[in-house]
């Protein structure tokens, strides 16, 4: 019993020892795993996290700096663009003023040239030079009221106007508007009625002043029944809220206009007699230089402005970092959790070892106690054995019975068991030794391979380092070369900008020189023409002196001996070879030329001629008088007939003009009223139930058929834009609206639409289909050519053309959709072939 207890305690003690050993081994394994794997990985990940945090902070700072720089550059660019826009607008204004100044200067030059070529007094002058305002506040209103007649040329009669037009055509000197005083037609205006409309309204004829009373018909023609009001509100009240029906054009003091048709236009800048356009060359050059400087500065700001792609790249990098940080943080949490779990396991194993040691101690104490008991029992047994087996031992020569047991009994069997256990342990040790030897061999072979690989990698590393050093040196050299090239490029760019600036200045100077040359050439031509006119007057005067036997003293020779009948063109030169002797004149006439003196002499000469005619009786005067009377009567009859023909032609012309205007305005008014509703119906939708808006305006109110018509279409939920800026679909809808509105004036029985849906999306195609379906009828049939099912599926009938390959001809298929439901129907081809057109 004690032996089995002892064996049980020994087995338990051995198990405890093995458990303690396993726990200690597991602790070492866990500590090694924590130290070698988890803590190393944790340190690596923490360092990586720290690097990422630092990189993120750096990238954020860099991104903020870039964003701030972009913002500052954008503000700077906006400011420069604003200044550049203002400078460009002022330059455009100055250029417009320069063009207007050039136009007016050319017009004045043409007037001066025409005055030299026609008789004196035939050309009165430019309208804005002949009239003025009664008060300065009416300047803008008068200019607007004059309109296109502001710079018209007032002439004496139609013959002078036609002659001036022929001269301008021959010389290609431009265009001009002429108002002949003898044939201009003026409308009858009831000035008293216009003056009684409102205290703040007056006829335009009341605010104009002119010195030459012969200009009255021209002024009446230019202004007509125009009314000048103080402001636009008064004009609106008179036009639409007054009890009187007023069809006159109304002009406000700021230049705003309400036309006779009701259209309104805004005010304009004041131009006082054409002299308010003060174009300054110095200001133009200064603004041009300022624009170039602003453009250069703007280009510099734009080139230095960080690219938005850099910000996007930084944002992408930050997004990647933000995605990487949680992933690494999750790894850190997992590793820390693994470490904590293993530390907890180590703590648990240590506590287990302590408990095992306590159990070992108690087990060992129990074993020692049993050993003491067994020893006591063994002593007792030994004593009993000596007593019992003393004879047996003496008989066989044994010291005691234990010697017999050791060699032949239980001890032999125990030794056998022990021997078997040792043999098994030796076999297991040999197997482990063989395994360890094989493992050592594998490790040594791996070491050899790694050593070889290491030597190869070291060689590759040396070569890579050498290559890196070479490339670094090359990069440094290239960077230095690039820096020098950049400096050269900047210097060349500065030189180029300077050359371009000088070139532009030279071009401007050359343009000015050309303009000055052109102006001088025109002045020279006018001077030559004036000299030719003076030559003709000189020759005529010499001829008259010779014909009338005037004794004109010459320095050499006599006037009667000189012939003026040569038509070779050298008469003017011959006239200049004739030198008049002015020695007989008084000194006051020899000293200088005065127009006043010339006028006095002309009056005296006329008086002397009249006295001579009275003193010299003519016997044939009565006959000549009769002939002259007859010719006068004939001329009077012809003139009367011509005036009657002219009046009849003018009356017919005015009738045709009024009829033409009435027909045109009838169609225009109908179309203008219709187009907005058509456009609204074509463009309305669920999101915009009111649809868009469209309207037509005339460019010329007086002769609408002779000018253009402006068409404006504004799609729904969009701001106003020019027609050229609309998309293809929007232009298509606007064009269809105009066509449908025109068709509504005098509708035709058929309306052919050939693939109008090519630029339209499905929504607009449905709108077109609905419009056609709603307006189609016996009196208005649509023939639509389309390839889109959403359009032709709503039709009343379908006609298709296809090619019959066997007969080389075309066939038609037709289907009346009104006779069928929405279910698919069989379509039969027609039997009659149609000749194919290739």
Strand order of the largest sheet: 5-7-8-9-10
Span of the ends, CA to CA: 125 Å
CATH topology of the domain at 2-91 and 305-408: Helix Hairpins
DSSP summary, beta strand count:
17
Overall mean pLDDT stands at 80
Helix content: 55-70%
Largest sheet: 5 strands, mixed
Q: Shape, please?
A: elongated
Percent of sequence in beta strands = 5-15%
Count of helical segments? 19
Uncertain ranges: 269-279, 825-838
CATH C-level label of the domain at 2-91 and 305-408: Mainly Alpha
Q: Label the structural class.
A: alpha+beta
User: Could you say what the CATH architecture of the domain at 2-91 and 305-408 is?
Assistant: Orthogonal Bundle
Radius of gyration: 60 Å
Seen as an oligomer or otherwise, the chain set is single chain
Describe the protein's architecture and organization.
The protein has 838 residues and is an alpha+beta fold. Among the domains are: 194 residues, Helix Hairpins (Orthogonal Bundle), CATH 1.10.287; 154 residues, no CATH class; 130 residues, Rossmann fold. It is 66% helix and 8% strand. It is built from 19 helices and 17 strands. The strands form six sheets. It has a five-stranded mixed beta sheet, sandwiched between helices. It has a three-stranded mixed beta sheet with strand order 1-3-4. Helix 1 runs parallel beside helix 12. It is elongated. The C terminus is likely disordered. Its main location: nucleus. InterPro entries: P-loop_NTPase, RecF/RecN/SMC_N, Smc1_ABC, SMC_hinge, SMC_hinge_sf. One of its GO terms (molecular function) is ATP hydrolysis activity.
């Amino acid at each position: 019993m004690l032996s089995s207890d002892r064996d049980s305690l020994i087995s338990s003690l051995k198990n405890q020892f093995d458990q303690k050993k396993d726990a200690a081994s597991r602790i070492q394994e866990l500590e090694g795993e924590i130290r070698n794997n988890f803590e190393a990985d944790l340190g690596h990940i923490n360092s990586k996290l720290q690097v990422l945090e630092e990189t993120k902070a750096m990238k954020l700072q860099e991104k903020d700096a870039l964003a701030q720089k972009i913002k500052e550059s954008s503000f700077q660019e906006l400011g420069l663009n604003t200044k550049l826009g203002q400078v460009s607008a002022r330059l455009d204004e100055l250029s417009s003023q320069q063009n207007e100044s050039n136009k007016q200067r050319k017009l004045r030059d043409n007037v001066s040239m025409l005055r030299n070529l026609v008789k004196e007094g035939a050309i009165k002058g430019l309208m804005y030079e002949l009239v003025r305002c009664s008060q300065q506040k009416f300047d803008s209103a008068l200019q607007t009221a004059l309109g296109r007649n502001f710079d018209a040329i007032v002439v004496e009669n139609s013959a002078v106007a036609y002659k001036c037009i022929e001269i301008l055509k021959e010389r290609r000197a431009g265009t001009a508007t002429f108002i002949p005083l003898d044939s201009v037609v003026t409308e009858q205006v009831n000035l008293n009625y216009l003056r009684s409309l409102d205290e703040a309204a007056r006829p335009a004829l009341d605010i104009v002043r002119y010195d030459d009373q012969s200009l009255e018909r021209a002024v009446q023609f230019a202004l007509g029944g125009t009314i000048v009001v103080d402001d636009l509100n008064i004009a609106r009240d008179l036009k639409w809220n007054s009890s009187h029906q007023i069809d006159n054009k109304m002009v406000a003091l700021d230049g705003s206009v309400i036309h006779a048709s009701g259209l309104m236009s805004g005010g304009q800048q004041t131009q006082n007699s054409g002299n308010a356009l003060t174009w300054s060359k110095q200001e133009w050059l200064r603004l041009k230089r300022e624009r170039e400087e602003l453009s250069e500065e703007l280009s510099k700001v734009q080139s230095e402005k960080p690219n938005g792609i850099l910000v996007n790249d930084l944002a992408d990098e930050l997004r990647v970092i933000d995605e990487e940080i949680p992933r690494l943080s999750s790894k850190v949490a997992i590793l820390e959790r693994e470490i904590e779990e293993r530390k907890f396991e180590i703590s648990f194993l240590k506590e287990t070892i302590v408990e095992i040691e306590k159990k070992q101690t108690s087990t060992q104490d129990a074993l020692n106690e049993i050993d003491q008991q067994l020893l006591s029992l063994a002593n007792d047994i030994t004593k009993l054995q000596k007593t019992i087996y003393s004879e047996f031992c003496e008989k066989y020569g044994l010291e005691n019975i234990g010697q017999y047991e050791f060699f032949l009994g239980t001890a032999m069997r125990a030794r056998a068991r022990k021997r078997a256990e040792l043999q098994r342990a030796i076999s297991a040790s040999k197997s482990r030794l063989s395994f360890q030897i094989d493992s050592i061999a594998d490790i040594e072979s791996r070491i050899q391979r790694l050593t070889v690989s290491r030597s190869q990698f070291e060689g590759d590393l040396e070569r890579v380092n050498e290559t890196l050093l070479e490339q670094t040196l090359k990069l440094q050299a290239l960077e230095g070369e690039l820096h020098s090239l950049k400096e050269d490029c900047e210097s060349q760019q500065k030189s180029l900008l300077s050359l371009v600036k000088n070139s532009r200045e030279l071009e401007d100077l050359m343009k000015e020189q050309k303009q000055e040359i052109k102006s001088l050439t025109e002045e020279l031509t006018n001077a030559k023409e004036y000299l030719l006119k003076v030559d003709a007057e000189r020759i005529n005067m010499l001829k008259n002196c010779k014909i009338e036997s005037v004794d004109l003293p010459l320095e050499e020779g006599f006037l009667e001996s000189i012939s003026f009948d040569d038509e070779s063109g050298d008469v003017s030169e011959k006239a200049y070879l004739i030198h008049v002797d002015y020695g007989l004149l008084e000194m006051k006439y020899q000293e200088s030329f005065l127009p006043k003196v010339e006028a006095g002499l002309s009056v005296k000469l006329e008086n002397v001629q009249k006295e001579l005619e009275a003193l010299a009786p003519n016997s044939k005067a009565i006959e000549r008088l009769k002939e002259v009377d007859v010719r006068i009567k004939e001329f009077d009859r012809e003139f009367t007939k011509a005036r009657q023909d002219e009046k009849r032609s003018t009356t017919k012309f005015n009738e045709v003009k009024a009829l033409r205007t009435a027909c045109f305005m009838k169609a225009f008014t109908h179309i203008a009223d219709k187009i907005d509703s058509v456009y609204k119906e074509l463009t309305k939708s669920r999101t915009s139930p009111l649809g868009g808006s469209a309207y037509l305006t005339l460019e010329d109110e007086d002769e609408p058929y002779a000018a253009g018509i402006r068409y404006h279409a504004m799609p729904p939920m969009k701001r106003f834009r020019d027609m050229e800026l609309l998309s293809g679909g929007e232009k298509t809808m606007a064009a269809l609206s105009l066509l449908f509105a025109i068709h509504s004036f005098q509708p035709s029985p058929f309306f052919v639409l050939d693939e109008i849906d090519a630029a339209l999306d499905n929504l607009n195609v449905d709108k077109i289909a609905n419009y056609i379906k709603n307006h189609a009828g016996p009196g208005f049939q649509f023939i639509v050519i389309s390839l889109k099912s959403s359009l032709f599926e709503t039709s009343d009938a379908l006609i298709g053309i296809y090619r019959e390959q066997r007969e080389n001809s075309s066939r038609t298929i037709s289907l009346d959709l009104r006779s069928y439901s929405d279910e698919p129907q069989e379509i039969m081809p027609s039997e009659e072939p149609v000749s194919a057109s290739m």
